[in-house]
Amino acid sequence: MGCGGHDVTHVLRIVNMEPQIREVVPGFDHYEYRAAAWFHNADRSPDFMNPVQVPKVGERMGEPEHWRFSQSFEVAVRKLLEESPFDCDARDRIVDAAVHHGKKHDSLTDSVLLQALRLADKWDRLGVMGTNAGGAFYGAYLLPYNPESPFGVSSTAEGGMSTLYHNFFRILEWYAMSEGIRILVERHPERMRIFLAVVRAWGEEIASGHGIQNEVEQDIRNALGLHYDAWKPS
Ligand SMILES: [Fe+2]
After folding, report:
1. Greatest C-alpha distance within the chain
2. Which of 25, 60, 139, 145 could disulfide-link to 135, CB 3.0 to 4.6 Å?
3. What is the Å distance from ligand 1's center to 229 Cα?
4. pLDDT (tens place) for every residue of the chain, 234 residues total
5. Does some domain include residue 111?
6. Tally of structural domains, the chain
7. Cα(211) to centroid(ligand 1), Å
8. Domain end point (choices 121, 136, 158)
């Protein structure tokens, strides 16, 4: 719960945004949502990231076929739910949502609770707090940008990013991928405007700091794809 970017403030914001999420993904249980939200980023605990327990940590956040999770995380969440008033089905939904919240792609078999938690987890990143989350989580071991080649984004996989700059585009891609995110942005466009303003400011500072051409707009265009025109500079 103390892991930067996945800390208690992130969890509290997810808990508090339940009404917004419910407008887009209705039908989940209030208490199951709160339980899943509180448990979900315990997966960042060093105990659960132990390479002995998680042999393929590097593949952990990749495509579904590479999906690997720490059994110890699932066991721990189930253990914590043992004394709870949730019935077996509710416990299964909570565990499933907590364990799978970080997967990249939606699935037709995702429960409403999992959809809600995944949407909330992403929505919390698309704003000024989200611009800070990458630095809080990766800042100890990733450069802000590659001084030899700052622009261009080759990978936005969680284990594949080599700079903090890349993490901005991992978040922006969610806008293109997720209809739920686009609905929330439509209702709260200031969050997207702030996020893009920060990314563009990074591009300007990098370019001026190194005396090179600013190519941030091309990276934004690539991340937003068909949705870029709505957000291009006026
Ligand atoms: Fe999270």
Report:
1. 61
2. 139
3. 29
4. 557 788 999 999 999 999 999 999 999 999 999 999 999 988 877 666 544 434 444 444 443 433 445 568 888 899 999 999 999 999 999 999 999 998 878 888 999 999 999 999 999 999 999 999 888 888 778 999 999 999 999 878 777 788 999 999 999 999 999 999 999 999 999 999 999 999 999 999 999 999 999 999 999 999 999 999 999 998
5. yes
6. 2
7. 37
8. 121
**135 and 156 housed in the same domain:** yes
Rounded to an integer, what distance in angstroms lies between the CA atom of residue 13 and that of residue 123? Answer: 10
Residue 37: inside a domain: yes
| Judgement on whether residues 163 and 63 belong to the same structural domain of the protein | no
Tell whether 195 and 101 lie within a shared domain.
no
Give start and end residues of each alpha helix (H) in the chain.
8-16, 18-24, 30-40, 71-81, 88-100, 112-123, 128-138, 164-177, 179-187, 189-210, 216-224
Distance 213 CA to ligand 1 centre (A): 35
Q: Are residues 114 and 210 in the same domain?
A: no
Distance from the alpha carbon of residue 10 to the mean position of ligand 1, in angstroms? 7
Domain range for residue 159?
128-231
How much distance in Å is there from the Cα of 117 to the middle of ligand 1? 9
Distance (Å) from CA 96 to ligand 1 centroid? 14
Residue matched to tokens 């990013």: 161
Say what the pTM is: 0.87
